Amino acid sequence: MRRSEQSAAREIPHHFATPRQAYESGKLGMWIFLATEVLLFGGLFAAYAVYRGNHPEVFVYAHRFLDARLGALNTLILITSSLTMAWAVRSAQLGNRRLLTLLLALTLLGGGAFLGVKIVEYEHKWKHGLLWGEQYRPHHPETAQEHSSAPEIPRETPPGDRTNIPPAAIGPPGLASSTDEERAAHASAKEPRNVHLFFGVYFAMTGLHGLHVIAGLLVIGWVFVRARGGAYGPSNFEPVDRAGLYWHLVDLIWIFLFPLLYLIH
To answer: pTM for the full model?
Structure first.
């Protein structure tokens, strides 16, 4: 038996009775781990829903500063990398080491390209002060124009210019219409308050997702190195399979993030 075939043979830990028991235990553990990841991002999606429901005008206004073309490009990159990763798992099952290493390398390339595009987006936001909390100091051309064109409020009205018409009565809350469309139309005319909330949510969700992409690349890189040494084959492809499951989850989360952050109407 060649060395590569020996390394590809299944090594069963001593606390498992059969290879099938080891395989199913590992699979169950991986799914439990993925469930915790879903719960983690579920909290962020819930926070998004709360902020979006309470400040729809902020999200409709601020999403214009995200580049939907770059977001779509990253979506295409991740979907393609999911395809290469799934193909890599199948190659491991068939024992095709050369194709396995090639597809893993393409998956790594896709993940690196995703991070590169994300760095370009972050650099743009940082450069124009479109950040979270007190760090939100916009000097984007559009926002700068809006701020410069905003009329100045006089501190004191001259006595001769004061109107004799009493101020309009304020209706009780609930009578004024405040649909998303009307608030969005108002947001398009003037920058609403608390725009920093959107960028806080944006950086929290995409930043955490980016960390998961980096973790996925580290795992796939480790699998890639072992695959080059012939560690995987028809009887020992589980590490490739589990890395693929994690990568698919990372891609799936981005598929939800892209429309929620970039395609708001």
So the answer is: 0.76
Please name which of 44, 144, 4 lies closest in space to residue 52, comparing C-alpha atoms: 44
User: In degrees, to the nearest 5, what angle opens at C-alpha 162 toward C-alphas 161 and 167?
Assistant: 145
In eight-state DSSP terms, residue 165 is S
CA nearest to 74, candidates 127, 103, 137, 116: 116
Q: How far apart are CA 68 and CA 70, in angstroms?
A: 5
Those residues with Cβ within 8 angstroms of residue 224's Cβ, 6 or more apart along the chain or in another chain: 101, 104, 105, 108
Reading the chain (265 residues) residue by residue, the pLDDT tens digits are 454 444 555 567 777 778 778 888 888 999 999 999 999 999 999 999 999 999 999 999 988 899 999 999 999 999 999 999 999 999 999 999 999 999 999 999 999 999 999 999 999 999 888 888 888 888 766 555 554 444 444 444 455 545 455 544 444 444 444 454 554 454 455 788 888 999 999 999 999 999 999 999 999 999 999 999 989 989 889 999 999 999 999 999 999 999 999 997 7
Burial state string for 180-205 with b = 16 or more CB within 10 A and e = fewer than 16: beebbeebeeebbeebbbbbbbbbeb
Spell out the residues 6+ positions from residue 3 whose beta carbon is closer than 8 angstroms to its own. Answer: 230
**Farthest-apart Cα atoms in the chain, separation:** 103
